[in-house]
Structure formats: C-alpha cells, structure tokens
Amino acid sequence: MAINLKPHAFAGNPLRSKTPKAEDPFAPIPALETLKTQLLDSTTEHHVSPPTFKVLPFRKGRPLASSNGGVGDLVPNWNLGWISLADCKDYLANSGVQLNGDSLVYLGSRPEDDVVYWAIDVSDEGGLVTEFATKQLSFVEVRTLMVATDWADSVAMGELAIAGHARALLEWHSISRFCGHCGEKMVPIEAGSRKQCSNELCKKKVYPRVDPVVIMLIIDRENDCALLSKQSRFVPRMWSCLAGFIEPGESLEEAVRRETWEETGIEVGEVVYHSSQPWPVGPSSMPCQLMVGFHAYAKSLEINVDKEELEDAQWHNREDVKKALTFAEYQKAQRTAAVKVEQMCKGVEKGQNLAADFNVESGELATMFVPGPFAIAHHLISSWVYQDSFNGVEAHLKLPRSGSMSSL
Ligand SMILES: [Zn+2]
C-alpha cells in the first residue's frame, strides 16, 4: 500500500510536532504559571520576556478568523484570528469578565518564535462579536474554513489543523463539565489538557477523548469495481465510502467486516490499512473522531442495502469513479468558500450558519462526485482509481495459493 507522505487535513499540526519536556518554559504547566503571573501584572503590555502568549478565541465551536483579501484574480486566504494575552484580557474586561488563566486551554508552542498558543471559549460573551467585527475578524465554522483552505498550501493546512485541534479540545471541555462518577464539577488541570473531579473524595481524572470510526472502500478485484454509497444527508449526486463506529470488544478489521455486512450485505475478506485522519468537524457530542481508513476486498458481490443506514450502494467501475474524481470542481468550491469567508470577515456576509452551503463540494459537471481532498474518503477512492490496474490484476493473480509462498 502506498505510504502517504502528506498528512490528511487536520493532521500535521505545526504546534504539536514536538512536545516540550515537562520542565521546559514552553511546556503546558510552566507556561500556564508564567501566563498567570503576566495576568496579575498590570504592566502586562510592557512585558517582553519570553514566552509570549497568543490566544485564539472560539465562539460556539467557531474560531476567530481574518481574511487577507484576494487582490484582482487572487483567491483570498483566511488566517486564524490570534490575539495577544493583553488584548484578550482587555476584551473580556470590556464585557465585565476577569480573565482567569484556568479558562485558557494550551494548544502548543513554537519555541523558535518564543510563542505559546492558547484557545479560549468566549461563547458567553456575545458582545465580542461586534467588537471583533470592527477589526474585520469573524467567528467562522471550522468546516467552512476547511472547504476554503487551499489543500496544496501546507501553511494553510497547518492553520486548519490548529483550528481543528482547538475546536476538539474546547468541545471536549464543554461536554465534560461534570464527573461521570459522582456528578460533581470537573475542573481543568495541566493547562486544560486534562480535567479532574473537584470532589476531594473522588478526584477522578478524564482525558480528551477520541472516537474511532472505520471508513472503508470495498473493492471487487475480479471486476475492477468499487462500492460507493449514498446517505440521505449527503448532497445530491455525492457518493462515498462506507463508514461506521467500532463496538466494544471489536478489532478494526472486524468493525470493517461487520459494518459492510450490516449496511450492504456484502461479505469482506482481506482488510488492508490505508491511513487515518483526525476529524474534529463531526457532531459536537463527538469532539474528535479519528477516521481509520481501509481498502477492503469483497468476497460476495450481491448488494442488499439497509435503507435505515443508507440511501443506496452500488458497484462502480474504475473509469466511472475516475470521472467522478476528475469532473468534480473542488477548486471552484474552495474559491467560492474562500470568498465567503472574506465577506464574513469584512462584514458583507452576515449569515453565520453557512455550513450547509459548504457541504456542497461542487460537482456541477459530474453525474456523480465524491468528497473533496480534505476528506480521507477522497484519498481512499483516488488511491484505488490511480493504482495501475494491470498491476492490480496481476497482483491478484499472484496471490499465493496454499503452500506456494516457498516457490516465490
Ligand atoms: Zn467525581
């Protein structure tokens, strides 16, 4: 299986490439101590000794963003709306809130720039929206930013990964307010990377959670076809891979086989791991899904769709799937989304709930299309389509029959 050298969208977070050692000033606990000292110091604005702190405000799961504006034919670029610790303190003070270090969540650092990065949830401070708007900053859905990101631009993809990680952490904080053991309040510890029950007799610790999901392209080797499915929540004409949650006591391979059988009645034999992708843009009850991608080979071909799970599932030959990849206008969708983000930041576009628009990944020319390059499904599909079909068949014919390994 080909090795993916380029990380998927939401992976490759540049703030997390190296975790500082516990005693390092850029590590979560020492950094929080310094930050708290700076907050108490009324001369914060003049504080120059490193590290410096940058804060990314979030409102209802949306990070603050700016857009640099595309001049002429250039597509606008969005950027995360980092603010200084001093500005964050001032903004909150204007809303009558005193900034407390414990409401900041550590995101990571860039020691080469002397900066430590934090996120803060300001959902309760509605007044900030107007205040930021005067600076051409707007809270934008991560999913919208995802579609608006040029996936060939590694710096922009790094910003998207930071936004996704921060959103996942803050969502986890907001759904883990109370102890599942005794019901008391949970408080953040270790700069927000853990939470602990405030009940002295309980002190249960919880860790940010990841929900693994298997996602698989089912392949029929004999006929050189792949199984694509449609869900009713998909935009019209979009087809994708099967996916499903892992059940307790189940291996990933078993989950692939069970989900495929339950949803389509197809039996799966060999299951081959492809790659994985953090997916922080699912439902808020699951702040970070981890999509674990596979190619899985069918042992039976007859489709029997579970209509409660899927709208449809069909075998498609390689040429048709290649057309679905070729004709979909992902780049056009990206430009449209980038322009909309620009309009939101400039205050031209007032609507906040634009996510639905951006689920449309544009497939105007295609009779069918598949999810865009920011989704692992796209890569599971395209890596099958662009495998050398002759080699694929040959490899299949060379599969060892009983005892033939010794003759290779
Ligand atoms: Zn407890």
TrEMBL record:
Cofactor(s) in the UniProt record: Mg(2+); Zn(2+)
GO molecular function, one term: metal ion binding
Pfam family, one: NUDIX-like
Keywords associated with the record: Hydrolase, Magnesium, Metal-binding, NAD
Residue ranges constituting the Nudix hydrolase domain according to the UniProt record: 208-338
Enzyme class, broadest EC rank: hydrolase
Cellular component GO terms, alphabetical: chloroplast; cytosol; peroxisome
EC annotation from Swiss-Prot or TrEMBL: 3.6.1.22
Keyword hit for Metal-binding: yes
Family: Belongs to the Nudix hydrolase family. NudC subfamily.
The protein, known as: NAD(+) diphosphatase
Record organism: Quercus lobata (Valley oak)
Gene that encodes the chain: LOC115977039
